[in-house]
Amino acid sequence: MANLSLYKKFYKVNNIDELVKKFQETLMTSNKTYSYFVAWDKVKKNVQKYDYEINILNYLVGSSDPRNKLSEILKKNPEVLPVIPLIIAVRDLEIAVIDDPARPAETVKEFDFSKKTNLTAKNIEDIVVFCDKAGILKLFSEFKIKNLRDYLLGLEAGIDTNARKNRSGTSMESLVDPILDKIKSISVVKQKTFKHIKEKFGVAVPDRLLNRKFDYVIIADKKFFNLEVNYYDGQGSKPQEIVDSYTNRKNELAKAKWGFIWLTEGPGWKKGAHQITNAFNDMDFVLNLSLASAGVLKEILGK
Q: Are the C-beta atoms of residues 281 and 262 closer than 8 Å to each other?
């Protein structure tokens, strides 16, 4: 159960209910930094590595006969093949497609877009047919794009938004790191497995956690703490399931005499007073960024 005396050093709270209220009042409405939205360096890199091939395919832009034009390009420059899947936002170089939906099992066709030194007439015809049926030729002849590179940059930016879920965790780390940097005389290990900690420091770790990855392990005066961070906007997992998962982690680590700290943020907890109450009742240390930066985290670590 949360140690109220610890929190009382920073906030005027007399019981768990008041602590939960303070926790909710100080929640952040966003964990997004400017780098959250699009990883522009990644977008640029993904397109730039095909600059030569893209310039060749640009000859298709505005063509009145893209089918024959593409055939000519493939005969002379088969190295443009890997770019074709990118035009339809596909990373794989081998693509299987059902040619006739009425006979799916019988009409699966496989296309190989990996680089080749030369292509047979049949290879070229198959690729051209694929580009026709997948709408790629229409993109060049009817959609009035000015150049393929700009199109791919926009497409890559759109694809990159799928990585935002992963960047949400990175965003939380970017907000937690400065708080930890201000706490002197601690050692911090990030994004490793507990097995790594056991082997490097010779500390006891429950067998069930050996292959689990952690957000942070903090070593303060020879005491080991696992700090886990997350952001909950109200979507995805149910709030009690989230609390239960971290409570289980705390209970496992307690067997090896580790400390456990859960730092969570997000507007999803505004409606989760019951679940946060459970968290304070079941865990020793529950924080949000405001509580952590106010000094509670430093106090937990005995610094």
A: no
